Amino acid sequence: MALSREQLAMRVAQELQDGYYVNLGIGIPTLVANYVPEGMEVMLQSENGLLGMGPFPTEDAVDADMINAGKQTVTAITGASIFNSAESFAMIRGGHVDLTVLGAFEVDVHGNIASWMIPGKLVKGMGGAMDLVAGADNIIVTMTHADKHGNSKLLPQCTLPLTGAGCINKVVTDLAYIEIRDGRFHLVERAPGVSVEEIVAKTGGELVVPEHVPEMQFTNG
Description:
- It is an enzyme of class 2 (transferase).
- It comes from Ferrimonas balearica (strain DSM 9799 / CCM 4581 / KCTC 23876 / PAT).
- The protein is an alpha/beta fold and about 220 residues long.
- The chain is about 15% helix and about 25% strand.
C-alpha cells in the first residue's frame, strides 16, 4: 500500500540527526516538522527568515505573522531566531544547512532534479530551491513515485527544466526509499505491502534491486 503524506514525512524524519540544521521545502517536506524524534534537538530553517521552526500550530495557537516559506502558519521552539531573508540565504549559500528536504516533479539517475516549473502551467518562481540544492551536500527528495497519470517521476533523464544537476542522492517516495549512485537508482526499502515488482514497473530509470528488500519501519508514529 502506498504511503500517505504523513507516512512519507515520518520516514524522512528518520534521517534526522541530533544537532542538525535542516531546511524543509514546500509541500510534503513541511510535515517532517511534526515527526522529529522525541528527545532529538534539530533546528528547522525556513528561507523566509526563521531558524527554529516547531510543529504546525493547533487552531487556538495560530499566529498569522509566524509563517514558513510556503506561507503556512508555524510555531517556533525555545531558542528560535527570526531574521531577514538575506541572512537566511547567506546561511544556505554558505553551506550551513546539514540537510535539505525537497519535493520534486522529476529526479533522474544522474541525481538531477526538476522541481520548479511545468511548461504551459502557471510558474510561481524558483523560490529558494536552486540555492538549497547548490548549498547543501545532503539532500532528500520526497514525492510520489508516479504522477497522477501513472507516469514515473524517477527517470533516465529529467524532461523538465532543472533546478539542480547531480545533487540528489536520496529519494523517499510513496512506494520506496531509493539511493542514487553510479548513474543508477538503488532500491533500499519498500513501503509496507508494496511489491518489488510494482516499484520496478513504476521506475523509469535503471533500478538496481538487491536480493532482499526490507519493508520500511515506522518508529515515530
